[in-house]
Amino acid sequence: MNSPRLLIHLCLLLLLSSIPAGAAEKTKSLQLTLPPTFYAVPGVEMNIYYDNIVLTETPEKYCFEVYCNIGTVEHDRWTITPTPCDVGQHPLSVKVIDADGTVLGTAKTILHVSAAYSGFHRDTYRLLIIGDSLTHNTIYSNKIAELLSKPCNPKWQMLGTHKPKSAAAGVAHEGYGGWTWQRFVSKYEPNPDGTHRKRSSPFVYLGKDGKPGLDVKRYFKEECNDHTPDVVIIKLGINDCFSAKQDAIDEKIDGMFTQADILIKALQAAAPEAEIGICLTTPGNSRQEAFFANYKDRYSRWGWKKIQHRLVQRQIEKFAGREKQNLFIIPTELNLDIVDGYPVNNGVHPNTAGYEQIGDSIYSWLKYRLEE
Description:
30% helix; disordered N terminus; globular; alpha/beta
């Protein structure tokens, strides 16, 4: 069944013949986008959902051909739960074809399957997770902790000052609803009330001159018992860019990257050995009614998809190929079911199943780094 370079080809012929592609979509690129590499571990399901890699409102109108020597295809995704025999690297390519047989886009990536025992003999592995409301929710952090607690993993420790009631034992992070790269760089609250809603950035302190400033080294010393992380996972971008005007998306992203560079530079100065993983911004709910429930007519599903798709492209352009600088891409945008991984009434916040898919993606990347 899984012969070398197997062509996995699922064409919904009846559907394609009954729903022709619109003229506008036939004349513009679907902007098929894949990261250079994505990651998996034996026993953990990994997916590429087609709707997450193309810029269209109607992915069901197209045929997706996937070339890989492992994996299977379903109507909306390519999927695999690797076995130990799959450990290694597997080239994968995707071709998108319209109802007339015209090839609209091709893209390539590499699936890297890490052994389940990767990192088993390492000393305590310390993680710092930074994010917005998706991190605040804590489900994906709990999932990472659950997976790291399985046999054949090193002892682990999560650094962070935020430990919500929903956090599992040992789980901590710096994730706050509505936060952006800029807030982590500069937010200072002179009168905190002890809650997560009214507080300074955990990395911002008053200096000797009485002015607030970014001081990550002090954070590690005072809040982390002078421990520095082995890895920093950053999942930001939604709040930075969600309100971007459609004719100024790149301008909004440029501003976000300015703040991102400041925080990354500070983290690297304070923890020069730490590996920093940038999570590619996750797609929103497939349902327009979910966006209407949250935002009425202010923001739409298609409007956010255009922003999110461009943001992922820019994140890949900016951070790919920087491994020697200890900067990495975590492709969290591929493995999120935007139908069953979301509630019917929320545009950008997954349900438990969706959050756990994010956790699976991050864990798979962690195992890739642990094998190094």
